[in-house]
Automatic annotation (TrEMBL):
<dbReference type="InterPro" id="IPR004808">
    <property type="entry name" value="AP_endonuc_1"/>
</dbReference>
<protein>
    <submittedName>
        <fullName>Exodeoxyribonuclease III</fullName>
        <ecNumber>3.1.11.2</ecNumber>
    </submittedName>
</protein>
<keyword id="KW-0378">Hydrolase</keyword>
<feature type="active site" description="Proton donor/acceptor">
    <location>
        <position position="154"/>
    </location>
</feature>
<keyword id="KW-0460">Magnesium</keyword>
<dbReference type="InterPro" id="IPR036691">
    <property type="entry name" value="Endo/exonu/phosph_ase_sf"/>
</dbReference>
<feature type="binding site">
    <location>
        <position position="255"/>
    </location>
    <ligand>
        <name>Mg(2+)</name>
    </ligand>
</feature>
<dbReference type="InterPro" id="IPR005135">
    <property type="entry name" value="Endo/exonuclease/phosphatase"/>
</dbReference>
<feature type="compositionally biased region" description="Basic and acidic residues">
    <location>
        <begin position="243"/>
        <end position="254"/>
    </location>
</feature>
<feature type="binding site">
    <location>
        <position position="35"/>
    </location>
    <ligand>
        <name>Mg(2+)</name>
    </ligand>
</feature>
<feature type="domain" description="Endonuclease/exonuclease/phosphatase">
    <location>
        <begin position="5"/>
        <end position="255"/>
    </location>
</feature>
<feature type="binding site">
    <location>
        <position position="8"/>
    </location>
    <ligand>
        <name>Mg(2+)</name>
    </ligand>
</feature>
<dbReference type="InterPro" id="IPR037493">
    <property type="entry name" value="ExoIII-like"/>
</dbReference>
<dbReference type="GO" id="GO:0006281">
    <property type="term" value="P:DNA repair"/>
</dbReference>
<feature type="binding site">
    <location>
        <position position="156"/>
    </location>
    <ligand>
        <name>Mg(2+)</name>
    </ligand>
</feature>
<feature type="binding site">
    <location>
        <position position="254"/>
    </location>
    <ligand>
        <name>Mg(2+)</name>
    </ligand>
</feature>
<feature type="binding site">
    <location>
        <position position="154"/>
    </location>
    <ligand>
        <name>Mg(2+)</name>
    </ligand>
</feature>
Length: 264
């Protein structure tokens, strides 16, 4: 069994004790981290090595940043950043092949921190939509390789009305605009599977609770962290889940770890 998780850690230095605690308690084989908010030279690779994880990372000072951890293995980087806008210096995409244990085949894992897009309309929303089209182009290239693959991360997209505690409360947000949802749906139309959405068709599964307005205490959350599976990975799907209790711990991220388990 291989467990792959996505976790927007919201500052890897500030949350390192919580992150190491989660790794120890849940022992994912692969962990995709977003919003590490660390320059490359400041990434705490030694701490993960002591915890038994190899790591690669794509950092940026104070903002963004993504990383891939593998238990007892070293991720082999296959791509850093997305094609299409050479001037884009934001660290939001990292991709690797990961072989866990004595598995016969590696997994292709993409770690994604998709732009938020607020305020909309405006240049930040336009950038979000362009970025999603660039992601789709890369996803099609991965698809053509016919490998087991996972596109894991914080997509900053609420796919359906039942993926948010109150659709009217978020109606004007970039996360719920028809253009954002349409771009996400095009990935699904290309053949990628949203396993948590499929396993929970009635929704009400949150992965994010804002720090403001008592959102956690009132369970006012929404689902924006997704792990999309290629057919070769979806055929091996055994379980999905959200480690909700980790959101309620002291000095926690505003996201909860979200995961899938694959056979083999």
């Amino acid at each position: 069994m291989t467990k792959i998780a996505s976790f927007n850690i919201n500052g890897i230095k500030a949350r390192l004790p919580r992150l190491l605690e989660w790794l120890e308690e849940t022992r994912p084989d692969i962990a995709c981290l977003q919003e590490i908010k660390s320059q490359d030279e400041g990434f705490p690779a030694d701490a993960f090595e002591k915890a038994g994880y190899g790591a690669i990372w794509h950092g940026q000072k104070s903002f963004n940043g993504v990383a891939i951890l593998a238990r007892g293995a070293q991720p082999v980087e296959t791509k850093r950043g997305l094609d299409g806008e050479p001037e884009d210096e934001q660290s939001r995409y990292l991709e690797a092949d990961v072989t866990i244990g004595d598995a016969e085949q590696s997994l292709r894992v993409a770690c994604i921190y998709l732009p938020n897009g607020n305020p909309q309309p405006g240049p930040k929303f336009d950038y979000k939509l362009r970025w999603m089209e660039r992601l789709r182009a890369r996803a099609r290239q991965i698809w053509a390789e016919e490998v087991p693959a996972i596109l894991a991360g914080d997509y900053n997209v609420i796919p359906r009305d039942n993926d948010v505690w109150s659709p009217p409360a978020m109606a004007s947000d970039a996360l719920m605009q028809p253009e954002s949802r349409g771009a996400y749906q095009r990935l699904l139309n290309d053949g990628w599977t949203d396993p948590i959405g499929n396993w929970h068709p009635d929704g009400q599964i949150w992965t994010y609770w804002d720090y403001q307005r008592g959102a956690w205490q009132r369970d006012h959350g929404f689902r924006i962290d997704h792990l999309l599976l290629s057919p070769q990975a979806a055929d091996r799907l055994k379980a999905v889940g959200v480690d909700k209790d980790h959101r309620g711990r002291e000095k926690a991220s505003d996201h909860a770890p979200t995961w899938v388990e694959l056979r083999g």
